[in-house]
Each structure stands twice: as structure tokens, then as C-alpha cells.
């Protein structure tokens, strides 16, 4: 993972139980707040390109708003079948800023 984190918002910009979408370079990244812990995944559903950040978050599962495909925001894995996944990204809060890595995690 790259150490080149990019500021995208103020800390606290993503309410608990919600998601927000941020553009980092050419990537659209969805950030979710699960009980105070932030997780970042690719915003684009691999099915037909739905915006995952606009879906319904239930626990650690985000449902694509277009066809309800369920992804675990902590792993990026589709729940059924779990071998399909979206990229995950580093996310951190420093000095009142929400920062994202533009490079997917392994």
C-alpha cells in the first residue's frame, strides 16, 4: 500500500452507519463508517457499475443500490459468491482530516 494518502474531507464527514463517495485521482472510492471504524472500497459494483457508496449499509454489508449485490466493506468480498470482490483502500484520520490511499490494498 502506498504511503501517499490524500485528504478528501474533514474527520467525521462520514456518519456512523453511512457511506460517502470521494474521488481520488481517477478512482471513485466509497468510505463507510461501521460503528466508528472507517472502511474504504471501490465505489463501482462489478456487476453493472452501480455506486456502492449510495447503497444501504447493514452492519458490515453494503447492498448495491441497483441490484442489491451484498459486499462486505471490511474485505471487499461479495457475500455470494465470496470469490468476487472489489478493491479495498487505506483510510485514516489525522489531525482532523479524513485521508484515503489512492492505491488499492493487497
User: What would you call the quaternary organization?
Assistant: single chain
- Helix vs. strand class: mainly beta
CATH T-level fold name? Rieske Iron-sulfur Protein
Uncertain spans, ≥5 residues at pLDDT below 50?
none
Topology order in helix (H) and strand (E) letters: EEEEEEEEE
Q: Specify the CATH homologous superfamily.
A: Rieske [2Fe-2S] iron-sulphur domain
| Proper CATH architecture | 3-layer Sandwich
Average pLDDT metric: 94
* Continuous helix count: 0
Trace the largest sheet across and list its strands: 1-9-8-4-3-2
- Overall CATH class: Mainly Beta
Radius of gyration computed on alpha carbons: 13 Å
Q: Helical content, roughly?
A: under 10%
Please indicate the count of domains: 1
